[in-house]
Structures are given as C-alpha cells and as structure tokens.
Amino acid sequence: MTDNFQQLDLPSGWCRTILGQVISVIRGVSYKKQDAGFEATAGVVPILRATNIRDRLAFEDLVYVPDHYVKREQYLIPGDIVIAASSGSRSVVGKAAQLSTDWVGSFGAFCLALRPHDSFTNGYLAWFLQSQEYRSRVSRLAAGVNINNLRREHIEETPVLVPPLLEQRRIVAEIEKQFTRLDASVAALRRTQANLKRYRASVLRAACSGELVSTEAELARAEGREYEPADVLLERILAERRARWESQEKRRGKYKEPAAPDTSDLPPLPEGWAWATVDALISEPLANGRSVKTASDGFPVLRLTALQDGQINQSEFKVGAWTEHEAEPFFIREGDFFVSRGNGSIKLVGLGGIVGPVHEPVAYPDTLIRFRLHPEVSLSYFAHVWNSATVRQQLETVARTTAGIHKVNQQDLSICKIPLPPLAEQRRIVAEVERRLSVVQQAEAAVEASLQRAERLRQSILKRAFSGELAPQDPDDEPASVLLERIRAQREAEQAAATASEKRPARRRRSKATG
Predict the structure, then answer these.
(1) Which among 94, 312, 487, 495 is most buried, taking Cβ atoms within 10 Å?
(2) Do residues 382 and 337 make contact, with C-beta atoms less than 8 angstroms apart?
(3) Quick one: residue 91, left, alpha or beta (phi over 0 = left, psi -120 to 50 = alpha)?
(4) Residue 512 above 50 pLDDT?
(5) pTM recorded for the entire structure
(6) Given pLDDT bands bounded at 50, 70 and 90, which one contains residue 148?
(7) Cα–Cα distance, 260 to 239 (Å, whole number)
(8) Who contacts 374 (Cβ-Cβ below 8 Å, separation ≥6)?
(9) What integer pLDDT is reported at residue 145 of this predicted model?
(10) Are the CB atoms for 36 and 67 separated by under 8 Å?
C-alpha cells in the first residue's frame, strides 16, 4: 500500500499525510475479569468488544464494568471510530466502525478508538478504514503466531490521502448514496439465504416424519404386496449382531442387548416406521480417535476441520507424531460416519460427516467419534437425519460445557433416538432429499456469488473514493494543504496550552515553599 500511496498522482487540491497527523488514538479499558458482568446495573459502563465491530457497531452482547475503571477520555463520543486491535483471527483484527449515535459507553483493551480532528468531515476517515487498501496493510502489520496485534504506531503511521474539506463531504455523500442501494441488495440476498436455510431444514424435517415421499406401507397397500416394517428390520439387525457375537471364539462377558428407546416424549411415526437408538443401528461399538501431537515427520491424522457440510474432507489433515503401525487401528474407511466431540458453538457440536472413497491411508483424531452402521441401514439416510433438527435437539440438550467448549460423549450419542423407516423407503427419502437439496445448493451458490460481487463492488467504490474518482473536484475548494496546516497549528496550540497548565501549579507550589 505504501508504494501505491507514494506513486499515486494526486488529484487537484489533495495532500498526502498519515493518520497520526489528523486523529488521536485512545486505548481501551482494562478491567478485572471477575468485576465484569453482562447486565446493566447502577454504577457500571457498557463496554464494546471486537465482536461488536461489524459493518456497523453492534450494541448487543455487551460487557459491563464498574465506572471507576473508565477514564474520562475513554468514553466514546459520536464520530469516534472503534478498531479491533487484537484477535486470533486475521480477518477480525483491524476491523473498524464509527459511532454515529449518542451512546454512553466505552470499549475494551483489545480495541483502540480513533478520534478524528473535528475539522474533518464526519465519516471520511471511517469509510477509509473499511477500504481494502487499509485492511490489507493492517492485516500484514498485525500478523502474529497465535494472536494478531495491531499497535498504536501501526495506525498512526498509516498513510492516507486527504482531499479538500468540501470534497470530503461530496465523497461521503456519494459513498453513502451508493452504499444505501448496495446494502438494500445485500439485505435481499441475506433474506434469500435465510429462506433457503429454512427450506433445507423443512426438507430434513419432512424426511424424518414420513412427509417427504409416499410411505412403504401406502405403496404396499396400493400395489397389493407385503413389505418389511422397520421393527422387523430392527429385530433382524439385532439377531444378526447377537449371532455374530455368539460365533466369536474369544468373547468376553455377557451379550448386552441395546436398550429400547424411551418414546414417551417422542412424536408418533408413520405406519411401518420405528424409533431406534444409535446403539441398535451400529455394527461395531462407537470409537474415539487418538490425540497425537503435530510433527514434521510421522503419519497423517485428520483435523477437526475435515468435517465439512456432511462430508469428511480427507485433504484436511496434519502430520502426527506416530508411526503407521500405531495409527493403523484408527484408519478411516469408506462408509464410516464421524461426529465431532466438541465445539465452542453448541450449534456445531455433534455434527456428522460421511467418509467417501479413501485414496490414501489417514487416521482420525480424538476430536472425532467413529460410527460404523449396519449395512441394512442407509448411511445417507442416517446422515441426513443426524444433521436434522430431530437429532440436533437431542444433542444440544445433553451437551456439557467445559471451559467454554460444548462436548458430547459415546454414551450421549449411543442413546440418541433415530426415526427409522423401512429400508426401501429410506432409499426413496434419500433420493428425494438429495434432489431437493441439490437445487438448494445451486441457489445458495448463486447467492454467495452475488454477495461476493457486492463486496467487490463495495471495495471498488471505496477505492475510487480515496483516489479522487468518485466525486467531482472543484478548483474553488480550499486545498487540503491549508486544512492540514490549520489542524497542525491547532494541535500545537492545544499541546502548548496543556503543557502550560501542567507547569502552572508547580510554580505556585515552589512560590509558597520559598515564602
């Protein structure tokens, strides 16, 4: 950005400067964690955090701290710009939004506030701090190993082009006019996304309740034939499993039948369906993976990020500190189903994904739990049901929280209740779900492409704005050099007055001591 900044031909009346010449940087409030709360009570001040900085400042999910922690200059005033100065995510650090309303509050120590000189047009610098040129610069400067930190000097030394004051106003007005239209389009796309998400959920809900396709019982009656109900299918699965156990030469302990599901709080199912626990549908016991440290030389093991959109992305792995022989008991194979043991979001814990064809051996980690279903249970049907609201409600109810992480275990998963139709109906449901969801996926991809185009257009507008191409120049405007000189003189005068004010009481004290 610096090279482009130095090489850019300046429009008439514009000047180069750095942000430190036209803003004041204010550090955020430090406080003891045990003194903070989440409710507004007497004597506390609301605090913005990095999560509150979006396209606009968001005032929900605030922290409240006792007012003695907050210095007078740390109270925000309209026009202040709040910046995320520290974050584990490079996409968050440097994000900025301006306070545009009267609001009594402050901001936390992981943020900085910029107070533009009052000679600047309100909004000009705030829009500049949303430009790609600025974001690219701070992302590079703030990069760290685990935490990305944006320091005060990073902000103050950021170059900026300054147009005449009247042109600043024209630029801001044009940005806001064009963004108003763009934001309306983006809002419509977001509504479409939400509607598609609701439709996806409704398809899965219908799949779990027998409303998506004709039931096997209905078809059998219409065609004058017999069919195998799900309870008979379950009996056969369990009988085969017991027989296989009994045929093993080295068996230990007494065979344990899966417990029947408690259906007292469950909705009725269509004719021919049955409720079954996960324990009744698996051909092998659930199995946790193994935790291994990262190494430069070893054997590959999946990351938790391999779980993507109901599938296992086998390219998402690390090299683990173990040998192929040690990893072999944890090899994945086609048809395995893996579930996440824990996540910081309750909405993500317990999500599952299918393993497709395996081209290279890879093991699975302790963050995943392996399911191997009986071959007469459709894996695709099970996966759709597993990620539907029917199972999600069960998982979110039993998930436990430890150190901010929501977790489930094998016992939680084994007793989850699955609505099971006859096998032929499972296959028809899968075909209809996938037909409908393929249309949804195409629509979602089109919406996402439109959102990306909107963001590119937003950045194009900002780039034109801060290179003098968005609003017209007027040769009669007062040059920016005069504005900057006025700001410099005013700041020097304020600094001199502040220095004199600090020295005056000291002279009086010395005078009294001498007398």
Answers:
(1) 94
(2) yes
(3) alpha
(4) no
(5) 0.80
(6) confident
(7) 15
(8) 237, 240, 241, 281, 282, 283
(9) 66
(10) no
